[in-house]
Amino acid sequence: MADYLIRKQTGYMTCCPDEENTVGYYKFKDSESVEVYTRPSYESDTYDKVLDRKHELWKFNHSDKLKLSSQEMDKKFGNIYTLEDIDFRIGPSIGLWGWEISHNKEEETTWIRVHEDENLWIPFEHYQYESSDEEEETTNPQEDKVECWGCLYNEPNQMAHECCGY
Known about the structure:
By secondary structure, this protein is of the alpha+beta class. The chain contains two helices and eleven strands. It folds into two domains: about 5-125, no CATH class; about 135-165, no CATH class.
């Protein structure tokens, strides 16, 4: 199973790109092992990650100034990946805005779409399923009893009383 996203705390300097359409701010639990999927399912295809050339070049160019070996630079600054042909970066310090949430009941996995325009899906650390209107709910008729606080009448299955409006 691939690694997943965890919630990232936003600070006062964090600028949300679209407050009405985002579903949260996330970071990678382990950016080295995370997989990015084409659909919200482990059975879907995954995107190929490649090392980000700019980041690798920056580490190479600054290793002499910092007097660090290539391995020490990797350990200190980590690896940043991109997806082929998609403007998307994966790294230990990169925060992501979620654009959609999908609950896969069969896999018991909550998925987050992490790109505004592309189908890039990564599993979330916890399965967050909420029942929907489509599911049958069993109710106990006794639970439908509403207690009127205004007139103290208890009338089952009645949502509003004429006497008090409750």
